[in-house]
Amino acid sequence: MLEPSQIQGVREIRVGRFRIRALRDARFALDGGAMFGVVPRTLWQRLTPVNEDHTIPLATTPFLIEDDRHRVVLEPGLGLRWEEKARRMFHIDHGDGHEIGASLAALGVEPETVTHCLMSHLHWDHAGGACGADGEPLFPRAEYWAPASEIHAALHPDHLRRASYREEDVQPLLDHDLLGGFQGEAEPVPGIRMIELGGHSDGVSLILVEDGGQTACFWADVVPTRNHVHLPFIMAYDMNAALSHQVREAWIPRAVEENWTCLLYHDPLFPMVKFVQDGKRYTFEPIYA
Ligand SMILES: [Zn+2]
């Protein structure tokens, strides 16, 4: 089992004209059983460290994608607006300069210069950082994009969805007229496509970065960590597990066949990996510099 102190994979790659960098945001933890769904603990506990309260360590890793005209953030992170109780329950730890704002500052990137913020879906661990500590949009000049179905779910959650969304992550973006919804597919920047699929949530999307015959794919919660590549490893959090399975069966083999760079939001060690096939099983290979 790999421990965090061991060597980690690359955090920067190029895809055609795009430079893609993994940002730092937060460490947190969710129940290991919920993260692995029907997979028995005897199997998943071999793949990850387990905390005393049965949670497993996870990351939130936003990505910065740039060409000479666009500065795009994929997923704004967990955000800073958390009560003590939630911080404790989810082991939320922004570390030293690890939240997205500090991570961008360390790269010399001012929030005002971000042109686009793309959100795969609007669960709190993905959209919590859309607004800063003051509740105002973190990227005041950016176009924020999200699936329209997710905007609806965040503003009008039913009983099943209520625990996963926070209105305050979304409403300020609408008040400032910064948030646009899409249905099906959108291309906010030439070469960067959002593809709405559903399964995990109503509108969870993959984000594809394509240029010069190369592809990187941001998997959001379709494949949250490197240990979720194997097709049956679907989270108990998923709203529609049958649809999740269809989505994964359609897209994971494409990533293998076309040698995509896979960007993983929740993996605590490897934000960028390749998916590979090992017999009938899909798994991953780290990318090292
Ligand atoms: Zn998530």
Strand order, largest beta sheet: 1-2-5-6-7-8-9
What share of the residues does DSSP label as strand, in percent? 25-35%
User: What count of helical segments does DSSP give?
Assistant: 8
The geometry reads as: globular
Give the SSE string: EEEHHEEEHHEHEHHEEEEEHEEE
Taking pLDDT < 50 over at least 5 consecutive residues as the criterion, the unreliable ranges are none
**How helix-rich are the residues, as a percent range?**
10-25%
Q: Examine the coordinates and then state which fold CATH places here, giving the name of the CATH topology.
A: Metallo-beta-lactamase, Chain A
How many β-strand runs?
16
The tally of structural domains comes to 1
The name of the CATH architecture is 4-Layer Sandwich
Mean pLDDT across the residues is 95
Q: Note the main sheet.
A: 7 strands, mixed
Distance between the termini: 21 Å
Bound molecules: zinc ion
CATH class descriptor name: Alpha Beta
Query: By helix and strand content, what is the structural category?
Result: alpha+beta
CATH superfamily: Ribonuclease Z/Hydroxyacylglutathione hydrolase-like
Radius of gyration based on Cα positions:
17 Å
Summarize the structure in short:
With 289 residues, the chain is an alpha+beta fold. Helix content is 19%, strand content 27%. Strands 1-2-5-6-7-8-9 form a seven-stranded mixed sheet. Strands 10-11-12-13-14-15-16 form a seven-stranded mixed sheet. It has a two-stranded antiparallel sheet with strand order 3-4.
